[in-house]
Design goal:
- The complex is a heterotrimer of chains A (about 525), B (about 375) and C (about 425).
- With about 525 residues, chain A is an alpha/beta fold.
- Chain A has 3 domains: about 5-245, 3-Layer(aba) Sandwich (Rossmann fold); about 250-345 and about 430-515, P-loop containing nucleotide triphosphate hydrolases (Rossmann fold); about 360-430, no CATH class.
- In chain A, the strands form 6 sheets. Chain A has a 7-stranded mixed sheet with strand order 18-21-22-15-23-24-25, with helices on both faces.
- Chain A contains 18 helices and 25 strands.
- Helix content of chain A is about 30%, strand content about 25%.
- In chain B, about 45% of the residues lie in helices and about 15% in strands.
- In chain B, helix 3 (about 90-100) packs parallel to helix 4 (about 120-125) and helix 5 (about 150-170) runs parallel beside helix 6 (about 190-205).
- Chain B is elongated.
- In chain B, strand 3 (about 105-110), helix 4 (about 120-125) and strand 4 form a beta-alpha-beta unit.
- Chain B has a 6-stranded parallel sheet, sandwiched between helices. A 4-stranded parallel sheet of chain B has the order 7-6-8-9, with helices on both faces. A two-stranded antiparallel ribbon of chain B has the order 10-12.
- With about 375 residues, chain B is an alpha/beta fold.
- Chain C is mostly helical.
- Classes of the chains: A alpha/beta (about 525), B alpha/beta (about 375), C mainly alpha (about 425).
- Chains B and C meet through helix 1, strand 2, helix 3 and helix 4 of B and helix 1, helix 2, helix 3, helix 7 and helix 9 of C.
Chain lengths: ~525, ~375, ~425
């Protein structure tokens, strides 16, 4: 394999964001006509590397060299890289739903005749391109009328319209069902046989094992290794070891759990996607939470963890289909967020800024926002009570702000997260669901947040933690569920949890239980 | 920057306090509330306010210019205001109030909505200013002093008579098919024009000599909101399609020139023979149209004369005299009969245009 | 450096978002002083002040409702048409069905509530953008006005006119002033002093140090001074005139709605919805109910404004309400509200409305024609908001910034300044 000529070489790429080194000295060698997979945990730097390659981060905003087709290239923007035949297909498809397949394929690249768009030629060429990706549809069909799998094919056809030499696919099968995924993988094999080079970013290790020639593993913004699948006899376990290969340090406060009886249970939970009803985002999921217990939910991005949490929290996501919630032995029906709050549930969103906080507010107003009734009489707010509540949380959680009158938009991520936690602690919940509670927070603040979570559990509350960071789950949780493609695929006790086992459960549908 | 704000704020606060101090000195402006009649004139350089509707017709713009110049020549200070294009009534109310505040001795009002100014007229009256309604009679107020206008009933009569004469000249024998248009329903004068015209036309309609083929004779059907040309054109279009598919239209009663031209445009667009169309106001375009043989007639209500008469009334008020009026019976505004000076209108056709506009620098060249 | 800032904060009790409001109060004072000089003292003469209130109370009442609509992230273009529609119905109800005028006022408010429920239904429960719903309403109710009124002007009885052109009556001994107005002013002074001490008490209860006593005294002195000045002016108008009834209605509404928006859970929810509707929803705020309420409330206030205008004009006419929505919206934005919602105060909007009103009045007193007045008003609106945008670009809190922030969510959070660092630098360190 490795005697193929080198198409692309990225040499010691370093990309710095204010305060964070996203890529440090990354190397990547891609040979012509191969399928090269890039794997790594969330935040390992895969997407950043591809953005450097495709010119989203233009030459000059990073250090290092890109050598493409034997010469150093300096892309100034996406257009430049596309002109060189490098086309990236993002996870979020860049198609316009109300335009036809043809219009989308040639968007920004329309065939012209005497200044006007030559639709006849465009349709003819579109049919040709669609045949190459195995898409049988009327080219006048609107994008919104075809499924996600076919939309993905349109994206690839669009890439072909630009005379692609190097095709980059970011999580191409994340939103696809089994059959569509299979079709896509077959297509990639077909491209390989025709000499087209592909780079594929994926979390689905079984797919990578099945299709890739070379695998480059990134971790914490660095290249760990590049594996030759056939020569090195690579399997899923080998990849996982490369991805997680770091020791768990004592990044967690000491804690002895005081676990009580099961008080919260979700049974056979089924939820459909809010827009495309044929997609089931929660497939018959069941889980339990005990008093004083920290329960983790592990899964890759898009596995359906947030969807599960939000649909339980007053049906704030998706279309409820079936399933029951039992709290303290009684079935409860939570149709709205207000119901959920009234029944002692709290959900701390993964997206603090978009869903957790009103960035126009100050700390004081944010703290009491989810339960104004607690500081008001007959609907009239008691400013003193508001202030005192906010102030006591500020002290308790050691939120770094001069006063509680400070606007939340001025706080750092960690302190914002503390305000969000305070907001939900203020509602006196029995069950807190924390979705990615430490995302975008520096190590020191993480430690404090872990401490707060443990204290909440010690007060006899149930805590659910959703996280993409396996070490965090392993270090913090008493029990971990794994989620894959909208289904719970495993339940692992703390003592049995290690990154390899979890990663395996998170990337396959085979159900496994360790207790 | 911040320092500046602070400093200026301090200055602002001090200024406010200083004003407070000076304010405390001023007592109430006595009990001169109803200062009616006991004023024997006022200073010759007093302020005279003129509030006119929005600048939608050249007549109002001309009147404004004439007032500004005429009052200046007469030695007064003048404040001539037009209402804004969209918020007409509210603007005019505010303008009249501002004139009162500035101490205008006489306020001349060409009302946008003659029924919505009684509060302001009352305030002006209470402040001792005389109010003259110009061209449009302000209704529902006891505080209006004078009304000056052309004899609008006469205008209607002239229009009706000219319509009959014109049709007879074209086609000696009836019955004649005609259509009726009237002005904006919120303009007091619109009804007066219409009634004047109908006083001439009604006997002929009853005799069967003249036929309103669409049967739309009620003022609600004939009215054109806001005197808008597009409204008249649209109505004429509809009449032509609904009624005159295979009938000849002999005459149209139009209350003014703007509407007359819109009506002619509509008829030309339908490819019909232009009938006898009446008008009013002697607008430049209509005079051209009359000379070209399209519009049949217009009314000459020389704005110069009306403004001249108004200023004459202001002058006699200044001297402490009662202004000349020639009608103390006809114009009841709903509360009282208002002393009125009526100017006679003149009907103008192609035949007498040169003579009628001989003194008008703008129009007389058009008639040659 | 921070002394002035503290003074400003202490005097106006403000956080940074109040800085804009402070700027507008300053602008208002400056404009008043400017016109006072230019018009040789006409601007602050009692008859002019009375006229100013009479002429603008209905626009300011609209601004109250509009502020809440805009804070919730919507807009209402139909207020003028609703006002005209209600006006003609109320005028007709008195002229043709001889409804007594107090009943007619109630009738008008009920009409407003029904119209508001209609528009609120489409906005909140069907999800049609308020811009569209109220654009439709603008046409619908304007047409309704003409359909019902036949484009005629219908006059209203004397009793009804009180709400638009009435004044506090003359009672008690002849003091040379209107006694009731003086009493009202006195009550306001007492309220200001009481509130100041209440606020100091609250500060202490919050374990925070109250502002220095001299600041409190200065603040009270300024407020009392303004009130004394205003009430003397209003009380010394021509006999028969005093503080206008429409002004009393306005003041009552301003106080009530300020309390509602600042001090109640319902008011807090409006800001939450406008600031971040998804976050508000996930905090248990009933989004639909809030949206329904603001639209309905606006229509009721529009009806009230319409009736006040009819009462002032002594008649309901086909031109009523033309262009009011724009005046109300301009007042709200000049008063510091954010186009995207979530920011704005009642008092700010009133100040914004007064800036426009004084400008209008002053220019009219100077004899400037409406054409030029409109040009000037347009420029003032543009400059007021542009100044705001400029300030935010300089690193202060920004609406535009908070809007675009969602597109840059992935960039890592900036490091926090140490808590004891100078607050100014902390502020500029945060990208807008």
């Amino acid at each position: 394999m490795s005697d193929l000529p080198v198409l692309l070489e990225m040499r010691s790429i370093t990309k710095q964001f204010p305060g964070v080194k996203a890529l440090a000295d990354v190397n990547l060698v891609v040979r012509a006509g191969e399928i090269h997979a890039i794997v790594g945990e969330n935040g390992a730097g895969k997407s950043t590397l591809m953005k450097v390659l495709s010119g989203v981060y233009p030459y000059g905003s990073y250090d290092g060299q890109i050598i493409y087709q034997g010469a150093e290239t300096r892309f100034s923007d996406i257009r430049a890289s596309e002109n060189a035949g490098i086309v990236i297909i993002h996870q979020e498809l860049a198609l316009i739903p109300d335009m036809s397949i043809t219009e989308n394929i040639f968007l920004g690249n329309e065939p012209r005749k005497r200044g006007a768009i030559d639709w006849k030629a465009a349709n003819r060429m579109a049919l040709d391109l669609m045949a190459r990706v195995g898409l049988r549809e009327d080219p006048d069909t609107l994008i919104k009328d075809i499924g996600v799998g076919k939309q993905q094919l349109v994206e690839i056809a669009k890439a072909f319209a630009k005379d692609v030499k190097l095709l980059i696919l970011d999580e191409p099968t994340a939103a696809l069902n089994e059959a569509d995924s299979q079709h896509l993988l077959d297509l990639l094999r077909g491209f390989r046989s025709r000499g087209i080079t592909s780079i594929m970013i994926s979390h689905k290790l079984n797919e990578i094992e099945a299709i890739a020639d070379q695998i480059t593993i990134l971790r914490d913004g660095r290249t760990v290794e590049t594996l030759d699948v056939k020569a090195d006899g690579v399997d899923e376990d080998r990849i996982v070891r490369g991805m997680v290969g770091r020791e768990l340090s004592s990044r967690f406060p000491d804690h002895t759990p005081k676990i009580g009886e099961v008080f919260f249970e979700v049974r056979n939970w089924n939820v459909r996607h809010p827009i495309s009803a044929e997609r089931q985002v929660c497939k018959n999921e069941s889980f339990t939470v005990r008093r004083g217990e920290i329960v983790g939910f592990a899964g890759l991005m898009g596995a359906g963890r947030t969807e599960l949490a939000m649909s339980v929290f007053g049906r704030s996501y998706g279309v409820y289909e079936s399933g029951t919630i039992i709290k303290d032995g009684k079935e409860i029906v939570l149709k709205t967020v207000a119901d959920a709050i009234a029944h002692g549930l709290a959900y701390v969103s993964e997206d603090r800024k978009a869903l957790g906080l009103n960035l126009l507010d100050d700390i004081k107003t944010s703290t009491v926002a989810a339960k104004l009734s607690k500081i008001s009489r007959h609907g009239v707010l008691d400013e003193v009570a508001e202030y005192q509540a906010a102030e006591s949380y500020r002290r308790d959680l050691r939120t770094k702000a001069p006063t509680v009158d400070e606007g939340v938009s001025k706080l750092s991520g960690g302190n914002q997260q503390k305000v969000v936690l305070a907001k939900w602690m203020f509602t006196d919940p029995d069950l807190l669901i924390l979705d990615e509670p430490t995302r975008g927070i520096d190590v020191g603040a993480k430690y404090e947040i872990y401490g707060i979570i443990q204290r909440l559990a010690d007060q006899g509350k149930g805590v659910v933690v959703i996280s993409s960071e396996l070490p965090e789950l392993i270090g913090l949780c008493d029990r971990i569920y794994t989620v894959f493609e909208g289904a719970i695929t495993g339940e692992i006790a703390r003592q049995d949890a290690d990154p390899e086992t979890l990663m395996k459960q998170m990337t396959s549908t085979k159900k496994m239980q360790t207790r | 920057m911040r320092k500046l704000i602070g400093k200026s704020m301090a200055i602002g606060a001090i200024a406010a306090l200083a004003l407070t101090a000076t304010a405390c000195g001023s007592g109430r402006d006595g009990d001169t509330g109803g200062a009616k009649g006991d004023t024997k004139g006022f200073a010759a350089d007093s302020l005279i306010g003129v509030a006119l509707p929005s600048k939608t017709s050249e007549n109002w713009v001309l009147a404004g210019d004439l007032f500004t110049n005429g009052l200046k020549e007469a030695g007064f200070k003048s404040d001539v205001q037009y209402a804004g294009a969209s918020t007409t009534v509210a603007d005019q109310q505010a303008q009249i109030t501002a004139m009162v505040t500035k101490g205008a001795k006489v306020i001349v009002i060409g009302a946008t909505d003659a029924a919505q100014l009684s509060t302001q007229v009352a305030a002006a009256h209470a402040a001792g200013a005389k109010v003259i309604a110009y061209d449009r009679l302000i209704t529902n107020t006891p505080d209006l002093d004078y009304y000056v206008a052309f004899d609008n009933f006469k205008v209607g009569q002239l229009q009706g008579q000219a319509l009959l004469d014109g049709m007879k000249a074209k086609k000696p024998n009836g019955p004649y098919n005609i259509e009726l248009f009237s002005g904006s329903p919120d303009d007091n004068n619109a009804g007066v024009f219409f009634n004047g015209a109908m006083s001439v036309l009604k006997p002929e309609i009853d005799k069967g000599n003249v036929v309103v083929a669409s049967k739309q004779t009620d003022v609600k059907q004939t009215a054109i909101q806001g005197w808008k040309a597009e409204g008249a054109q649209a109505r004429m279009d509809q009449l032509l399609t609904s009624t005159y598919g295979n009938k000849e239209l002999d005459g149209v009663l139009s209350p003014n020139d703007t509407l007359a031209r819109a009506i002619i445009t509509s008829i030309k667009g339908a490819g019909k023979q232009i009938p006898v169309v009446t008008g009013q106001d002697s607008e430049v375009e209509s005079v051209k149209s009359i000379m070209a043989g399209e519009q049949y007639m217009t009314i000459n209500k020389d704005t110069r004369n009306l403004v001249k008469q108004t200023i004459a009334m202001v002058k006699s008020l200044q001297a402490g005299n009662n202004p000349e009026v020639n009608d103390t019976k006809s114009y009841n505004n709903g509360v009282k009969v208002v002393d009125t000076y009526l100017l006679p209108p003149v009907a103008v056709t192609k035949a007498n245009a040169a003579e009628a506009y001989a003194n008008d620098p703008k129009l007389s060249p058009l008639t040659k | 450096m921070s002394r002035i800032k503290d003074l400003q904060k202490n005097l106006f009790g403000g956080t940074t978002s109040n800085a804009r409001q402070f700027g507008m109060i300053f602008t208002l004072v400056a404009i008043v002083v400017l016109f006072q000089i230019l018009t040789d003292g006409l601007t602050l003469r009692s008859d002019n002040l009375i006229a100013l209130f009479n002429q603008n109370s209905y626009i300011l009442i609209l601004a109250i409702g509009m502020l809440m609509v805009i804070v919730a992230g919507h807009i209402d273009l139909s207020v003028g048409s609703i006002a005209a529609f209600t006006g003609i119905l109320v005028a007709k109800s008195m002229a043709e069905w001889s409804l007594p005028w107090p009943v007619a006022i109630l009738f008008g408010l009920v009409i407003g509530a029904i119209i508001g429920a209609w528009q609120g239904f489409w906005v909140a429960y069907v999800g049609v953008p308020a811009f569209i719903v109220t654009l439709a309403g603008m046409l619908l109710f304007r047409g309704g006005n003409q359909f019902i009124g036949n484009a005629n002007t219908i006059s209203v009885p004397e009793g009804f006119r009180v709400i638009g052109s009435g004044f506090l009556p003359e009672v008690g001994p002849n003091t040379g002033y209107n006694n009731l107005t003086l009493l009202l002013g006195l009550a306001a002074c007492v309220a200001v002093v009481w509130r100041e001490f209440q606020a100091r008490k609250t500060r202490r209860e919050m374990d925070a140090e109250p502002a220095p006593m001299w600041i409190s005294v200065l603040r009270m002195a300024v407020m009392v001074g303004v009130i004394v000045f205003a009430s003397l002016r209003f009380a010394s108008g021509r006999v028969g005139t005093s503080f206008p009834v429409s002004g009393i209605i306005l003041v009552a509404l301003v106080l009530a709605y300020s309390f509602y928006t600042r001090n109640t859970a319902g008011g807090r929810h409006i800001y939450a919805v406008g600031g971040n509707s998804r976050a508000a929803e996930l905090s248990g705020v009933k989004l639909k109910r809030v949206n329904f309420f603001v639209m309905m409330n606006m229509a009721v206030l529009a009806s009230l404004a319409g009736m006040i205008f009819v009462a002032r004009s002594a008649a309901s006419g086909p031109q009523d309400g033309n262009g009011w929505e724009l005046d109300a919206i301009a007042a709200v934005f000049i008063g510091g509200a954010a186009v995207a919602g979530g920011i704005g105060t009642i008092s700010g909007s009133i100040v914004g409305g007064l800036v426009m009103a004084v400008l209008n009045n002053g220019l009219q007193l100077l004899g400037v024609g409406t054409d030029r007045v409109q040009i000037i008003k347009g420029l003032v609106l543009l400059l007021a908001v542009a100044l705001d945008v400029y300030n935010k670009k300089q690193g202060r809190f920004s609406v535009i910034g908070s809007l675009t922030r969602s597109f840059r969510r992935d960039t890592p959070a900036p490091p926090t300044a140490p808590p004891d660092a100078d607050r100014e630098t902390a502020r500029t360190a945060v990208p807008s």
